[in-house]
Amino acid sequence: MKKLKEAKELHEPVLLNEVLEALRVKEIARSKKACYIDATVGLGGHTREIVKAGARVLGIEADLYSLEIARERLKEACPTLESDDHFQGSFILTHGNFIEIEKIAKDNGFESVEGILFDLGISSFQLEGKNAGFSFQDPLAPLDMRIDPVSNKVKASDLLKVLNETQLIELFTVVLNTAKSRLVAKAIVRERAKKDIQTVGDFLYTIRGIFRPKRGQNVATLPFLALRIAVNSELENLKITLPAAFNLLNLGGKLVVICFHSGEDRIVKHFFITKEKEGVARLLTKKPIVPSYEEIQRNPRARSAKMRILEKI
After folding, report:
1. Domain of life, per the record (predicted)?
2. How many CA atoms lie within 13 A of 118 on its CB side?
3. Would you list the DSSP string of 234-269?
4. Which residues are annotated as a binding site?
């Protein structure tokens, strides 16, 4: 299938070996018949390797398109595990947002697990292969940015239409400094007075001239990231789901989170430190684990990844 071939070419799971080591997958998967939750299964890269090691995995994914690809990839990698559409031998894939992790886990018999993974990045395949305005490469694409259009009815273009200037400044300060956020907000208010900002091209035109090019980064990268975070309530959802995920861990279980921008990383770092101070967890990464030079050369999108590990005690 063409899209499966494209997914293989576009997607490489970030920090794969480091994740497997952090979760002790090869060490305990078969001996304990360990259960894990991949809260952001994406295209299934991490889940595939955990399953191949002999563990059971519950994979949660908000994007139905990515979930379909993940199912195909897992069937191909582990053909002997297939039994029916929902339960694939040693993995269950389910559509949902990780904010509901506690309910999804209980519904599927994963109330007590050895480890939970959050890879908070959007896959290259999602950015480049889905016509939802995630990428700034196609100016004609609708400015949508919803990971799950089934449950989320508010598009990026809707936010740019209804938020006032102060709210827009707050939206963009998640990833931009205040001065740049003000410039972007003023430009949006000025442009939408003439016409609605409906497409990727409309937004690119609106923010033209505000940012200077940086080596290795498109000038639109950060404004697009801020919009995506707001549309999908990513930071709010992360704050809510981390305590719920921690509650699902067995003693000695690991919570592994890979972040790709400072807003996410601050939330994770604060939660991990708080749990250690409460005496219920041990922080295993005083400094985050980052990709090697070799991995970044293979997969440039990995360059901003930071992984933190918390152990329940």
Report:
1. Bacteria
2. 27
3. HHHHHHHHHHHHHHTEEEEEEEEEEESSHHHHHHHH
4. 44-46, 61, 98, 119, 126
What span, in angstroms and rounded, lies between the C-alpha atoms of 144 and 227? 10
Single out the residue of 109, 108, 121, 103 nearest to residue 241, CA to CA: 103
Yes or no: say if 223 and 168 are a contact pair by the CB < 8 Å rule: no
The upper half-sphere exposure of residue 46, i.e. CA atoms within 13 Å in the direction of its Cβ, equals 35
User: Comparing C-alpha atoms, which of 129, 141, 152, 120 is closest to residue 220?
Assistant: 141
pLDDT tens column, 102-115:
999 999 999 999 99
Is-contact 127 49, C-beta < 8 A? no
pLDDT digits (tens, 9 = 90+) for 22-38: 999 988 877 767 999 99
The torsion angles phi and psi of 48, rounded to 5 degrees, stand at -55, -45
| Tokens 């070799």 found at | 294
Q: How far apart are CA 113 and CA 245, in angstroms?
A: 10
Q: Which residues pair with 258 in a beta bridge?
A: 119, 307
Q: Shortest CA distance to 108 belongs to which of 128, 130, 125, 93?
A: 93
Summarize pLDDT for 191-215 with one digit per residue, the tens.
999 999 999 999 999 999 998 877 7
**What ranges do the domains of the chain cover?**
2-125+234-312, 153-231
pTM equals: 0.89
CA distances from 151 to 13, 148, 232, 307, 308 (A): 26, 6, 10, 29, 30
Fold (CATH) for 2-125+234-312: Rossmann fold (3.40.50)
Residue numbers belonging to the annotated binding site for S-adenosyl-L-methionine: 44-46, 61, 98, 119, 126
Rg (CA), the chain: 20
Give the number of other CB atoms < 10 A from CB of residue 175: 20
Tokens of 272: 């991990």
- Of 26, 24, 114, nearest to 312 by C-alpha is 114
